Amino acid sequence: MKGLFAGVDTSNYTTSVALVDTDGRIVANIKLPLPVKEGELGLRQQAALFEHTKNLPDAFLRLNEYMDGEILAVGVSAKPRNKEGSYMPCFLAGVSAAQAFATASKTPLYRFSHQCGHVRAAIAGAEIPVFDGKFTALHISGGTTEMLLCEKGVNGFDCDITGGTADLCAGQAVDRTGVMLGMPFPCGPHLEKAALTYKEKCPSLKLSVKGTYFNLSGLQNILQKEYAQSGDAAKVSYMCLEFIARSLHKAIEAQLEAYGRMPVICSGGVMSNSLIKDRLADIDGIYFAPPVLSADNAVGIAYLAKEKFEGK
Predict the structure, then answer these.
(1) Integer CA distances (angstroms), 286 to 252, 281, 282, in order
(2) How confident is the prediction for the chain on average, in pLDDT?
(3) How far apart are the first and last CA of the chain?
């Protein structure tokens, strides 16, 4: 019977719990999406906190089916970033549940950031060891579009923001476009499916990239105008993802020029997108995780708890 490490993450989109064992094998990866009404673009923090409170008992009940071993430590996402003052109410639900679980299990509770969990899960998904030196991480999701200079730290990773969006997050651009096209939220998978059916040449796109930072707010006007003129949902979907991908590519190259060549690990729900990954694949040393470990999950938090417990 192997020892187990539990992870808990309560983001603004998903209630997640996970288990990894002492051999580093993923035993469970349970994710319960938060319900969003048709036509809306996500949940307010108060609503997200309420939905997590409803989801967590079911999540732990499902997790119990995989707990064939002793819980050695519990990890939880306690804040968005590994910085002083970083705070979002939705993570309080996970902290409360994780504290109760750790207390009942008589095991230590380790607190990490949601962002560090994303980065660690992406490393696991790419099936590579944790980097010894500095590396670049992309955290591209509904609420975050950041390029980070990272290295291993006491509580996961020490990450400094070195680039990313200067206005609208990539996930917000995707969801706004999808809702405009009548797609259900979250719109990423539906937008990708539509974009992959577009076989024509992409119209000219004027990017707004300055070094490692870029602007996405102007994209909405471009897409609204195109949809009003053509009514072509596949074309609009393709243009949206192509614009994001090209902006990311230019910013990553600027990052590597400024800080030197280093590994680049991609995390966050937007980085589940196959079209975006294809456009970035020619960057030397870039790594991607499968969608299940790129989007919100608690696997990365479980790995961080394991490594903290083992003193790594």
Answers:
(1) 10, 7, 8
(2) 97
(3) 23
- What are the counts of helices (DSSP H) followed by strands (DSSP E) for the chain? 10, 12
* Structural domains in the chain plus CATH codes: 3-126+293-309 (3.30.420.40), 163-288 (3.30.420.40)
Q: What is the pLDDT of residues 48-64, one digit of tens each?
A: 999 999 999 999 999 99
Identify the DSSP state of 204.
P
**Rounded-to-integer distance, Cα 148 and Cα 255, Å:** 9
The predicted model scores a pTM of 0.96
- Where in the chain does DSSP place strands (E)? 3-10, 14-21, 26-33, 70-79, 109-113, 135-140, 145-153, 156-165, 209-210, 213-214, 264-267, 286-287
Helix 170-180 to helix 233-259 angle (10° resolution) is 180
Question: Phi and psi for 141 in degrees, rounded to 5?
Answer: -145, -165
- Structure tokens belonging to residue 286: 């870039």
CB 24 within 8 A of CB 306: yes
Indicate the range of 35-49, 202-216, 226-240, 295-309 predicted with least confidence: 35-49
Amino acid identity of residue 76, one-letter, is: V
The residues pairing with 110 across neighbouring beta strands, listed in sequence order, are 75
**Residue tagged 């969801």 (tokens):** 175
What's the pLDDT tens digit per position in 197-219? 999 999 999 999 999 999 999 99
Give percent of the chain with pLDDT exceeding 70: 100
| Residue 45 backbone zone (phi > 0: left; psi -120 to 50: alpha; other: beta) | alpha
Residue (of 138, 131, 133, 135) closest to 163 by Cα position: 138
**Is the model's pLDDT at 251 over the cut of 80?**
yes
pLDDT for residue 1 is more than 80: no
- Torsion angles phi and psi, residue 11, rounded to 5: -80, -175
